[in-house]
Amino acid sequence: MAEIVLYSNKLSRGRAVHWLLEELALDYEVVWLDFGQPMKEAEYLAINPMGKVPALKHGQAVVTETAAILTYLADTFPEKGLMPATGSPERAAFYRWMFFITGPLEAATTAEFLGWKTPEKTPLGTPCQAFLGFGSMALTLNTLESHLNQHAYVVGDQFTAADIYLATHLNFGMRYTKAYQPRQVFEEYVNRMLQRPAKLRADAL
Questions:
Q1: By the 8 A CB rule, do 141 and 75 touch?
Q2: Cβ–Cβ under 8 Å, residues 6 and 28
């Protein structure tokens, strides 16, 4: 078995990790798992007790959660240039937007897709919009739109692992679940990212 093993499903968030592995040009193995019982078997639960994908094994290290896996790989192989240098302002921006995607953007789009209705006030009597990490769907998307209108990539002018995460998330939200209406800057950004050779190689496997 290869030193790097990705456990995934072709219809899962694991596709983002697969794309990054191609960008990194590393030797790796993919173990494709069907949804349902195969992810609940004891052998896989020993890797990820949540019984979901993706999960990554790198030697003795085990990482789960898409954002964590992307960050781990980019950080572990700094010579590949997919994460800004430690201590740089760009590194801070990388962390900021990776957590924005996995936090506000993920929560807002999931709530919208599932039709969750937010009351005006919490059980404590405080405004829900102030309580929710994403505030509102409009606030989340407007924040992202403003950023992409000013920058070619998530982190300024440098393609990083954060772009892989954002492009796959926007593509899924706009075109698969259709949780929100496409915005021009989102469409243009996603179309550029999806044409990267590493992405095309990952999709071909």
A1: no
A2: yes
Do residues 133 and 110 lie in contact, with contact meaning Cβ atoms separated by under 8 Å? no
User: Are 30 and 64 within one domain?
Assistant: yes
The two tokens of residue 128 are: 């829900």
Asked if 29 contacts 5 with a C-beta cutoff of 8 angstroms, the reply is yes
Residue that is written with structure tokens 């709530």 in the block: 111
- For residues 101 and 191, membership in a common domain is answered with yes
Per-residue pLDDT of 75-84, as tens digits, reads 999 999 999 9
Are 135 and 43 in the same domain? no
Query: What is the 3-class SS of 69-97, one letter each residue?
Result: HHHHHHHHCHHHCCCCCCCCHHHHHHHHH
Q: Are 174 and 182 in contact (CB under 8 A)?
A: yes
Instruction: Dig out the tokens for 94 from the structure.
Output: 């990388």
- Identify which of 53, 48, 51 has the alpha carbon closest to the alpha carbon of residue 31: 53
pTM, two decimal places: 0.94
Contact (CB, 8 A) for 112 and 137: yes
pLDDT tens, 105-138?
999 999 999 999 888 899 988 988 888 888 889 9
Closest Cα to residue 17, out of 193, 196, 202, 155? Answer: 202
